[in-house]
């Protein structure tokens, strides 16, 4: 994968407290992603009315209202309590999808396409899909367990029927740290992206680092840290991960 470099991404507090813009403009830029009072009011009213309702009534309200914020949304999409959407017009969701309680789906970026979720996808409770001007794609039938994170500063793709166990991280970005006189936070971000093939199984707590490709049907052991690509149907375990067998 080709590695791209980008200038440092502004921290949220820098964007919120920078002079020269109104508080409304800063919030709209960070959260709503579209300018104008109308877009802001639509977002705020839907979130205020729908996000926190518990029980079956909450599910019904969110099913009716959340799609009005999204770029596109299929049939039978379930949004749990306290699901947070950022830059929702760049979020596209297929049919028969579950986004469980307390998930963050953040398509933030200036030039990215955002997040695309296929049909019959499950996104477990407390999971984060986070774009930093990158794109994320979850193909049909992908299943993400509780407390997972998928981060993208360029492009991350997760194939069909992928099973990600709880606490799995897919990290589609890195930092340049070549200048020891400057903090890593202030140096450029690099990203080659991550590609996970169809039918891959990631064990609990696995970490997939930037630039890695996992071939179709690969199995990654619990707690493994994957720094190099793994071929199709291989079994990789350990820190750093190494191939120990084949399916």
Textual characterization of the structure:
- This protein has 247 residues and is of the alpha/beta class.
- The protein has two domains: 40 residues, no CATH class; 185 residues, 3 Solenoid (UDP N-Acetylglucosamine Acyltransferase, domain 1), CATH 2.160.10.10.
- The chain has four helices and 26 strands.
- The chain has a nine-stranded mixed sheet. Strands 2-5-8-11-14-19-22 form a seven-stranded parallel sheet, with no helix packed on it. It has a seven-stranded parallel sheet with strand order 4-7-10-13-16-21-24.
- A hairpin with a 4-residue loop joins strand 25 and strand 26.
- The protein is globular and about 55 Å long.
- The protein starts with a strand and ends with a strand.
- The model has no long low-confidence stretch (mean pLDDT 92).
Which bin fits the share of residues in helices? 10-25%
- Give the overall shape, derived from the CA principal axes: globular
**Total helical elements:** 4
Structural class: alpha/beta
What's the number of extended β-strand segments?
Answer: 26
Provide the CATH architecture of the largest domain: 3 Solenoid
